[in-house]
Structure formats: C-alpha cells, structure tokens
C-alpha cells in the first residue's frame, strides 16, 4: 500500500469544494460569488502568513500613520492593501468599505461586479505585540445597479447581507463562514495550503455559562447592562454564577461564544453613548453568523440586523450570543423602557 497516496485524503471538504457545492444548489448562479469568495480566502491566507512572521519581519510597531479609528499598525496597513487588491482584482466588486479607510472605495468601471464588501482587515491589531488572536471580519451585500454604484448601496441593514464571516489568526488559522444557510468553520492546513472543513454546521448552545465584557467600563454602564452582569455574578434561585472570559479581540471573543455558548456584550456607556463597535464590518457580520448558528444579536433597542446605518463608520452597542442569554438582556431593556 502506498502510504503517500493514503496520506492524500480525497474525502476532505476544502472551502473551495464547499463553495462550489453551495453554488450547484443555485442553477441560476454564474459563479461570481464563488470567485469573490476565493479572492477573500486568498487574502486571508496571505494575512495569516504575514501575522505569523510579523515579529521576524519587523512588521510590528506603528507605521506612523493614523487611521480613522486610532494609531495604525504596520500589519493593519499591509492587511488592508492585501484585501483591497484581492477584492478589486476579483472583478466582482463595486464598493469596498474598510475600517482602515475614511472613505468607501468605488471600483473602476472596467473591474466592477455586483457585490459590495465591508470588512475590518485586521481586528484587534492592538493585540499583535502580545500574541493574542486577531482576525479579519467581512460581510457581503449584493448591489442591484452596479454600473453606477452609490454610497447608499453600502448602507444597507445587516439582514440584506448574502454572506458574512471572519478569519481568526491564532494557534491555528480558522475561517468561519455563512452564506445564509448555517455556519461552517474551516481550518487552514499549512501542509496543503488549503482550508479544510473542521466545524460543520456550527450551532451555538441555547444557553451558555460564560459572559464576555470589558468590566473596566462598569462605572459608565446603563441600568440593564449593570443588572445583567450583576445577575451573571450573583444569580438568583441558587444557580451557578457565569464565568467571565474577555480577550479584548472581537474575533476571538465571538469565536469562543459561538463554539461554547454564552454572551458577548459591548454596551453603550457614558463615555461611548453610541457604543464602540462599528455597525457595517463588526456588528453586522458577527450578528449574521450568530443568528445563522441559532443565537441572537440585539443592540439594546432592536434586532441588530434590522439597524439601518447612516454612515459607513457608524457605531452601535451590541449584545450577541446564546438565544436564552440574549433573551434575558432583552427583557431587562424592555422592563426599563416600560418604567
């Protein structure tokens, strides 16, 4: 028996094969979406490789420029360039919205396609220096008239997204994706250079034992958030308290929440009355994934995916995770609204 042949598993579900299988369920599809996703995957592989050698390549540290949000890291700049080039060269996009760019990018007419992609090329990049997991977050919209794209076409509610996902660069490189029919997780096999399906049909537990929030902001919280966290620590009816886990990198915190259950909170507070996380490329993609996995996402006022953004870098509070845990915080906000 040839062990080399045996080692080459042909039954592995790669991300390319998975996307092609999904495409075959839609006989009317022309393969545009498949091409776009393959360009996103290529960008993720490139950034993963750069993140892994960041310390060696002296990519760590400040690039000297400041982006819309804060001081920009060298790896942010690189990741942004990689994704912009990958998305434009796919020939399938017309509008790109990146966390790193103040304005939206309108693709030149010759390379235009029917999709708008919103993304954070390197979320949690302030954690690069200490080796904490960071990631890329993306969401995809379809645009009706892509010959003359306008900014309004990027400012759609999250429920209009056709796909969303994130790629986490940690102890392994994991890409979590939903094309609107469930959530699947793929892990990069470095020896093959391929993402392999390792977490098929991810379903978040209905109730979790973990809450995830920056408690350093507690003195500025509103009533319902403070009450919810109090209940997590000192539950009534003799049930066990929840454990606190907070990494401070949204991709890593949401990834754990998705797999283990529980709730991730980034509420509004006195310091950030509109919340801290950006609607288009952080709140929407993660809320899309949570709902697809059987969880919920709530802003403190409404279902997160119903929100209609007015600006590309708009912020919002967010509570997302296990269905029952989010129900609890919704009940606390409803009670406050009544009073």
UniProtKB/TrEMBL annotation:
Keywords on record: Carbohydrate metabolism, Cytoplasm, Hydrolase, Magnesium, Metal-binding
Family annotation (Gene3D superfamilies): 3.40.190.80, Fructose-1,6-Bisphosphatase, subunit A, domain 1 (3.30.540.10)
GO biological process, alphabetically ordered: fructose 1,6-bisphosphate metabolic process; fructose 6-phosphate metabolic process; fructose metabolic process; gluconeogenesis; photosynthesis; sucrose biosynthetic process
InterPro entries: FBPase_C_dom, FBPase_class-1, FBPase_N, FBPtase, Fructose_bisphosphatase_AS
Keyword Magnesium (UniProt): yes
Organism, scientific name: Linum tenue
Transmembrane stretches, start-end: none
UniProt similarity note: Belongs to the FBPase class 1 family.
Catalytic activity: beta-D-fructose 1,6-bisphosphate + H2O = beta-D-fructose 6-phosphate + phosphate
Names of the cofactor(s): Mg(2+)
Keyword presence, Metal-binding: yes
MF terms (GO), sorted A to Z: fructose 1,6-bisphosphate 1-phosphatase activity; metal ion binding
Compartment annotation: Cytoplasm
EC number(s) stated in the UniProt entry for this protein: 3.1.3.11
HAMAP family: FBPase_class1
Domain Fructose-1-6-bisphosphatase class I N-terminal: 13-200
Enzyme class label: hydrolase
Boundaries of every Fructose-1-6-bisphosphatase class 1 C-terminal domain copy: 204-333
GO cellular component, one term: cytosol
Protein name: Fructose-1,6-bisphosphatase, cytosolic
Coiled-coil stretches: none
